[in-house]
Known about the structure:
Layout: E1 2-10, E2 13-17, E3 23-28, H1 30-34, E4 44-48, E5 51-55, E6 61-62, E7 67-68, E8 72-78, H2 86-98, E9 102-108, H3 115-131, E10 134-137, H4 143-149, E11 154-159, H5 165-172, E12 183-184, E13 189-190, E14 198-202, E15 206-210, H6 232-238, H7 255-262, H8 267-283
Parallel strand pairs: 3-5, 8-9, 8-11, 9-10, 11-15
Antiparallel strand pairs: 1-2, 1-4, 2-3, 4-5, 6-7, 12-13, 14-15
Helix pairs in contact: 2-8
Amino acid sequence: MQSGKIIKSISGFYDVQLASGEVVRTRARGNFRKQKIKPIVGDLVEFESAYLLAVKPRQNALVRPPVANLDLAIVVMSAVEPDFSTNLLDRYLVYLAENQIEAVIYLSKTDLLSDSQRAAIEDRLAVYRQIGYTVCQNDGYDRSQLEALASQQTLIVMGQSGAGKSTLLNRLMPQLALETAQISSSLNRGKHTTRTVTLYPFGADGLIADTPGFSSLDLSEIDPITLADDFLEFAQIAVNCRFRGCQHLQEPDCAVKAAVATGEIAQFRYDNYVQISQELSHLRPVYRKSSKPN
């Protein structure tokens, strides 16, 4: 029996990379379907005679795109076309935090910015740096920095369609020659150019994936009660709230709201938190006790 990681899935076949670097094409056994086991890219598997026998427990797994066991994500955010959005960025960061995946922020298309636009975005990015996120930009691009971050890790490149994921990957790995997206002028969003997930060797024993772009994220599985834990600077201050489990909305003596008032927490981050929290609260089912008959 051999073991390895699925690096590509296509038409019912799974390419599995061994520790030696060798890649073996396999298929899933028939009982996988009966057991409702669906192997995905990133899965650690055991196989024999080109048939998958077992999928090992996952560290994490994303649904869209379907990829498992990720360590790090580069979130590609466009400066313009599509326009930079802290609301969308925070949704990515929440999504990754929920899945225990470290995030790196990469700003693309900075060459298209005016001086005033650049200054406004830099003010926002300074907040993320202060929180503790690594922030890179295409005009200060450093391949060695990204390679060092990805050393011996499985890395995903994600972001809105048209934001520049494929452009970044082409710079990191020119041999891929991935198709870059065109921007829809009517929607200000990109057309999808990458439809399957594939892991490629990168850096020192790392793997990097390109993923289909999408303009929205499904955060519906997140509990609004614990959402604040995904805003890293909130968690550090929330210990001083009057009530344990404070959601930093209407509660009195809230340390997080006090920090927003003094500027210790950025107003835009808090506003994004409130919006996401309200959306999640509206998605949660409301259970009511049935009236007893007279």
